[in-house]
Amino acid sequence: MPSGPVIALGAALILLVLAAVGVAVRMGRRSNRADRQPVYVINDAIDHAVEHLDPEVLDRIRRAGAQRIIEWSVHYLQGLAVPARRRRGLRVVAGGEGNAIEYIRGELAERGYDYTPSDIAAVLAGEATYLAGIGAMGERVEEGNPV
After folding, report:
1. Rounded to whole angstroms, how far apart are CA atoms 85 and 47?
2. Cβ pair 30, 75 in contact under 8 A
3. Which of 6, 13, 61, 105 gives 65 a disulfide partner, CB atoms 3.0 to 4.6 angstroms apart?
């Protein structure tokens, strides 16, 4: 028959194994959850948008222009995240819309950059395909349908 210290050692070993299994299960769940979460990387979004731009647009705005547009797009969308603005009926539209394009164009104009609305829209469309590619977009909502 095993002595007291051997039983205690066995019980401690079993508890240690159970604790390790519990930690492994929790880490696996976190890892699976993290794998499913879209991760927006601004440099990847810029690269994607630039790769999908019409060559004439890219000649006009260059990569630096696409970067400026996307950075101001992010700033605009962050502003829409403010609860008071959502209550006023503003909505988030991936790929840009009139208000987003005018906001971005105005901010860039204040800094000496003059991009056409169509150039801005082209960059935002590329950013939208990046968002779709990483799984960050939900179902399309038709005009007038509640979100």
Report:
1. 30
2. no
3. 61
Q: Tell me the two tokens of residue 59.
A: 């000649």
Q: Are 130 and 39 in contact (CB under 8 A)?
A: no
Q: Model confidence over 58-112: pLDDT tens digits? A: 999 999 999 999 999 998 888 776 666 555 555 555 667 788 899 999 999 999 9
Identity (one letter) of the amino acid at 8? A
Is the pTM higher than 0.85? The answer reads no
The SS3 assignment for 51 reads helix
Helix (H) or strand (E) holding 110: helix 98-110
For residue 57 the two structure tokens come to 């647009």
Q: Alpha carbon 75 to chain centroid distance? A: 13
